[in-house]
Amino acid sequence: MNDTRTMRSKVLSAGLAVGLLATPAAIAVAGAAPAAACSPAARVAAADTPADCDPVGTPITLGEPTPGATDGWQATATNGVGYQLPADWTGRAISGDGGDGHEWESPEVAVSDEFGDLHWRVLVQSPFFDQRMPRPAELNRLGFHASYVEVEGASKAVLVAAQTGHWADASVETIDFQLFVKSAETRVVTRFMGELPAGEEGQFLLDNFVPTVQP
């Protein structure tokens, strides 16, 4: 995985570490993703004064899957965790800050920058390096948009998603998401994350991708 993607993975992890840490002080220091309009000082006080921070993008919630939408999708797995993706997406093994896994990319280019073409993508890491589940209440107090969702085979699943500017080009709208699932059978926590197109296209992918996850 190139340095740009590794860095982005770390940025998203730092932003969502707030739900994985034990104390309010540690939660505040963890910080937010770049879209958050919070200074470091404001973030330190965020646990007590969440109004100091603007929300991180526009909230995205999980909708109902479209019947038959995934009939032509490809079925795959990462370390025993099964999921489905559109048939024309391509994947490769990666090793990132959250552990080993697979990165999948759409044929469509989302942004082109000095590092080349960046595609819409989904990164899957199982087991995720930190096996504690995030806490939606803590994330929401800091301006993130998190909720518990239903995922087949999971004892618990948390989705954090918002529509915001793409990390490589803020003028390009994108749905940033992270999905954490804990397997009901193995108790292993897996992380799915990535960038999807803004609007109806990205919402469609998210609504149909998430219910296909079988941890």
From TrEMBL:
<protein>
    <submittedName>
        <fullName>Uncharacterized protein</fullName>
    </submittedName>
</protein>
<feature type="signal peptide">
    <location>
        <begin position="1"/>
        <end position="35"/>
    </location>
</feature>
<keyword id="KW-0732">Signal</keyword>
